[in-house]
Structures are given as structure tokens and as C-alpha cells.
Amino acid sequence: MKRQAYKPQPGRRVHIPKPGTNDKRPIGIPVYEVKLVQANLAKILNAIYEQDFLECSFGFRPNRDCHDAIQL
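Above: the chain's sequence. Below: its structure in C-alpha cell form.
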């Protein structure tokens, strides 16, 4: 990651049947390594940007959800 040499592997594409028809719809299943990198990158970015948010901001922040915003 630091050397910017990381190349994510493509996700696996699976076709699942649609209920009530003979059609199938594609669904992408991510590789575990990609999910791990995304989670760690999210932790780093949250640590950097969390201090810039106001206390009244609730969208997609750790330990805050839409129910907290409604209670204000």
C-alpha cells in the first residue's frame, strides 16, 4: 500500500436465479484480501478526518447512526 504497488484482485461473479422467472442476475463476491484492505483503509481515513467533523454530523461515522440524529 505504501509503495502504491497493491493491485486488487477481481471479485468473483456468480449468477443467481431470480425468484419467479427463469432469468439469473449477476452478483459480485469480493475477495477477502480486498475487504481486509478496505476495512484497514477506512480505519486510517476515519482517524484522520474524524477530528474535522462537527458534533452535529452523523452520516457514516463510528458510534453514530440515524437514530442518534433523530433524537437531537
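DSSP finds two helices and two strands in the chain.
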